[in-house]
Amino acid sequence: MYIAHGYAAQSATGRLEPFTFERRDLRANDVLIDILYSGVCHSDIHTVRNEWEGSVYPDGTIYPALPGHEIVGRVRAIGDAVTKFNAGDLVAVGTMVDSCAECANCKRGLEQFCQLGATWTYNSPDRISGANTYGGYSDLIVVRQEFVLKVTHAKEDLAAVAPLLCAGITMWSPLRHWEAGPGKKVGIVGIGGLGHMGIKLARALGAHVVAFTTSESKRTDALALGADEVVLSRDANEMKRHAGSLDLIVNAVAVQHELDAYLGLLNLDGTMALVGVPAEPHPSPSVTNLIFGRRSLAGSLVGGISETQELLDFSAKNRILADIETIPIARIEDAFERMGRSDIKYRFVIDMQSASNSTRS
């Protein structure tokens, strides 16, 4: 066993505090990774606060809860059967650490839709031992090699790579699936941790990008991120000017809101893909908006392993990174509080070297 140091919550109302625990011994196909950086995702907050009980987590959060699924690190050791990695390699781990590998979806490279259920990086039963998984708010992790990703970015970019493992791939997957690119007009709803990556990636793919925000103060920011146009969604006239014009909308807003106003912006055969999971359901949209225009309302999860590797390679080649603020692990509760009031542009990343220091002090 390997002794790990991290931060975990003991209950839905408890604070994230120092937590020492054991990582499993290496299985033959495992990789032991020293974690360098861990991104902070809204999913972490939902999980720690048990806000997804009955939806994402039918039985609720399992405590202690140790989140973190945007992981960049360095390989310390490998199992006897590992062929893809060596000690010293820079690597990444995203939202999954295992799947059945045998179902039709896994064989298509869509492990996130494993028919037997993917093993998530945290709050999920290990496929072999049944033990609850602990995530990246820790100094090391053990992961099956098939779920470890290669990182080729420069050392100075590594912290900003971490959010690609959830925020980035959550936006990349629908953009790729619905073929965003030259000649396509793509809307990004919500200019936050996910949305800011969506703007950058859609622009890099060659699409005409329209950003939607409820805040006038974000107009300049969205343009700086690469949006061709910015629409204040509270302004009916601005919205009307784009009626029936968008090929794809990726809606990254994770709070309950009306969907009809956006569905009306889609052109014939256009699609709106929802990627945020609100604590309360969205009001049901009107069927009329879908029928008159043969429009689709869809959902999209994170991408599979091959798609995530594609994103990392694209990011390294084009130097498309998250806008981040780096923090020590001891400031995680402050980060959660600031995220609750949208006081971050646009993603917190924990310098995990601080985990060992703070848990041993």
TrEMBL record:
| Alphabetical list of SMART domains matching this protein | PKS_ER
For this protein, the record's PROSITE patterns field holds:
ADH_ZINC (PS00059), D_2_HYDROXYACID_DH_1 (PS00065)
- One Pfam family in the UniProt entry: ADH_zinc_N
Query: Which EC numbers does the record give?
Result: 1.-.-.-
Q: Which protein is depicted?
A: Zinc-type alcohol dehydrogenase-like protein
By sequence similarity, the record places it as follows: Belongs to the zinc-containing alcohol dehydrogenase family.
Organism whose genome encodes this protein:
Tunturiibacter lichenicola
Q: Which domain of life is it from?
A: Bacteria
Instruction: Tell me which cofactor or cofactors this protein depends on.
Output: Zn(2+)
Q: Which UniProt keywords apply?
A: Metal-binding, Oxidoreductase, Zinc
Leader sequence range is none
